[in-house]
Design a protein that fits this description.
This protein has no helices and ten strands. With 157 residues, the chain is mainly β. It has one domain: Calycin beta-barrel core domain (Lipocalin, Beta Barrel). A ten-stranded antiparallel β-barrel has the order 1-2-3-4-5-6-7-8-9-10. A hairpin with a 5-residue loop joins strand 8 and strand 9. The chain is globular, with a radius of gyration of 18 Å. The mean pLDDT is 93.
Length: 157
């Protein structure tokens, strides 16, 4: 209660306007790609991005066949205003620990970084129409836990 018995509620802060940069991800995406050692597409699946209630966090649910391995995961992406980055945490059926990632979104360009498995970076780009993307993951030099692959996709919804 405010001083003097005033029971007016205090306004809650809203989501940081920088989160709007993530709006481009919202929807369901068909994805296809291949590991760099393959002549054919061996990565296929879908990812769905949606805002959690309140608009402070973006959730990704992903279901991939990655060269014969089933990958299912949920990722929660937020915004760190002090550093100007989008930290995320991935919860996967493949490992029993939360995996930290960090997004950087500048116009059409997207960079995603993780230190997990020795480190890897995704560098990609949204298509001009906003309905497609392409890019690739590259492990850090001598990173034993990551695989290099290219990935592209189209928005379904």
């Amino acid at each position: 209660m405010a001083e003097g018995g005033d029971a007016r509620p205090t306004a809650m802060p809203g989501p940081d306007p920088e989160l709007k940069r993530l709006d481009r991800f919202v929807g369901t995406w068909n994805m296809k790609g291949h590991t760099l050692d393959s002549d054919k597409d061996n990565v296929t699946g879908q990812a769905t991005f949606e805002w959690l209630p309140g608009g402070f966090f973006l959730q990704q649910r992903i279901d991939l066949d990655f060269a014969g391995f089933e990958i299912k995961a949920t990722e929660i992406i937020g915004y760190d205003a002090e550093r100007g980055v989008y930290p995320s945490t991935v919860f996967s059926k493949m490992v029993g620990v939360p995996l930290p990632y960090e997004y950087d979104v500048q116009g059409d360009d997207v960079t995603i970084r993780t230190e997990f498995g020795g480190g890897a970076t995704y560098t990609g780009k949204f298509g001009e129409d906003g309905k497609s993307f392409s890019g690739g993951w590259r492990p850090d030099k001598d990173a034993p836990g990551n695989v290099a692959y290219d990935l592209w996709g189209t928005r379904l919804t």
